[in-house]
Amino acid sequence: MSKIVVIEDDRYLREELVKTFSEKGYSATSISSFNATESDILAAEPDLVVLDLNLPGKSGFEICKWLKARASFPILILTARDTLGDELTALGLGADDFLTKPCHPNRLLARVERLLQNYGKVRNLIQAGDLILDLDTYKLIWGDYHIVLPETEGKMMQLLFENSPRVVSKKALASFIWGGEEFVDENILQVNMVRLRKNLAALGLDNLIQTERGQGYRLEAGNES
Amino acid sequence: MSKIVVIEDDRYLREELVKTFSEKGYSATSISSFNATESDILAAEPDLVVLDLNLPGKSGFEICKWLKARASFPILILTARDTLGDELTALGLGADDFLTKPCHPNRLLARVERLLQNYGKVRNLIQAGDLILDLDTYKLIWGDYHIVLPETEGKMMQLLFENSPRVVSKKALASFIWGGEEFVDENILQVNMVRLRKNLAALGLDNLIQTERGQGYRLEAGNES
DNA sequence: ATTTCAACTTACAATCCTTGTAAGGCTGGC
DNA sequence: GCCAGCCTTACAAGGATTGTAAGTTGAAAT
């Protein structure tokens, strides 16, 4: 059965949620320490995340955005703050649904069920800014346009997505694409970078990938908050 | 701007909704006669549909299912019947969101905005039963599994999807795939059918496409209501 | 201004995937 | 058993993708 991870700092509600999901047959867990929240979530390999916005330390918005850039599970925001602004922000960052507390368990379950069914792990989609990348086919979506990249270029895109907007070294790219330990030829990487950039330009994305001389490449994702 | 079509039999609410959307800059229209609802909607080429469940004649559920099999725009159900069962049914049929009347305009707008942004026309997805087909890449999704079909097989799938569960003649398939008027070779169609079936079997979908001797092929989509 | 090294660019050939052709085998209904 | 309709397999042409080779360009430092 699907695995759900609950991110909620109120202990009572957290356990209530886990119980609700468990009773419905889901494998539900939660995170109780919020030091390395994001990586803890990734490590748990969830099929869906229920995320509170008010957490000690980092904001739920940040976590949502971070996760969406490197994983494809749906994120359901569950918050006490009933602001339309919050809802718009969350949905803009890629959140898949937005419910306010208190929330009837059946309503929550219905939404979770739908997300798992419709937008679940099957669609390997990751997101950076206003770009979406399908990891199965390397279809890149931007606004009304899309393009299907060949595998090598798609993998480059993937690693750049996952680290956006940080710099990715050529070494990291090469080992991600070809898996090899040592880094024999650096020319082939550049060739593929040219090809990728050409494909992106055809889409209208001209300066998406920037070169950091001596360090590597960086993807500056588009308009977001 | 995106085009929204409102399907609602209550005249007052219908005009209210159209006005709400228009003021936000959408191109909103509605349908006032419900004789050929489904084809009217398709003919309007919407980017999103707001659909009431209680309509004179056919049920909203039927319309939702029919549309999802041959178009890729998101469908938002807006209904007065606040039953959890309805919500589950609608979402199971592929509806993308579910709101109950009365509904604050801002809430509705926020949801519409999200659907257009996240799951809009960009992703060319059509649905038949529990299967999903991406028309850009011909990625076929079934539960936890997926496969990427080559173009020819993907097109076969598409036409079978759009007519499911009715029979599609070989002639129709051939002219859909190759466009030609006359139907020269029928062997190539069978070859591709074998390949498609082999690919489906690898996914676990063994008897998905049935042969109707002398008539054509038929796609019997999986478990649904 | 010159040097130097990283980054960029283009052309070409090997490889793999997809497609159509060909030829024969199977099957259900009469 | 016969025939039309359907299925199956093997093969070759064509195209897309990938890596190789061999340069040219450009920016920082002297």
Task: Provide structural commentary.
Two copies of one chain form a homodimer. Chain A has helices at residues 11-23, 37-44, 60-70, 84-92, 105-118, 151-163, 170-178, 187-203, and strands at 3-7, 27-31, 48-51, 75-79, 97-100, 125-128, 131-134, 139-142, 145-148, 167-168, 209-212, 216-219. With 225 residues, chain A is α/β, with parallel strands linked by helices. Chain A has two domains: 3-118, Response regulator (Rossmann fold, 3-Layer(aba) Sandwich), CATH 3.40.50.2300; 125-219, Orthogonal Bundle (Arc Repressor Mutant, subunit A), CATH 1.10.10. In chain A, the strands form three sheets. Chain A has a five-stranded parallel β-sheet with strand order 2-1-3-4-5, sandwiched between helices. In chain A, strands 6-7-8-9 form a four-stranded antiparallel β-sheet. In chain A, strand 3, helix 3 (60-70) and strand 4 form a beta-alpha-beta unit. In chain A, helix 6 (151-163) packs across helix 8 (187-203). Chain A binds chain B through residues 84, 87-88, 91-92, 94, 96, 106-107, 110, 113-114, 117-119, 121-123, 132, 134, 136-137, 139, 141, 143-146, 148, and chain B through 84, 87-88, 91-92, 94, 96, 106-107, 110, 113-114, 117-119, 121-123, 134, 136-137, 139, 141, 143-146, 148.
